[in-house]
Specification:
Helix content: under 10%
Number of strands: 11
Order of helices and strands: EEEEEEEEEEE
Structural class: mainly beta
Strand content: over 45%
Radius of gyration: 14 Å
Low-confidence stretches: none
Amino acid sequence: QVQLVESGGGLVQAGGSLRLSCAASGSIFSINAMGWIRQAPGKQRELVAAISSGGSTMYADSVKGRFTVSRDNAKNTVYLQMNSLKPEDTAVYYCNADVVTAEGGRRYEYWGQGTQVTVSS
């Protein structure tokens, strides 16, 4: 079994910054891509940013230049540095990981429990 635990959400004023972390633990052989997805009330889930095991990144147009995704492969952890936050960034942020398990070498997609980010105007 694999668990993803997120931290770092909270309430911040517009223009402020937050850093989200997501640590994976359990029966892990390797992790391919890791990413952050958000969902605001009444809206569809949006892929915010993702990073490959080799460090290649991608971002939604709405966050380019403001958010930075990174990872520490030794710690099985992915980060999302969010700067210049806007009220429209308010959402529950979920981390996601494409994991190859140590038991059986199977590949599964795992999700964190979500962390609330609220940006006040």
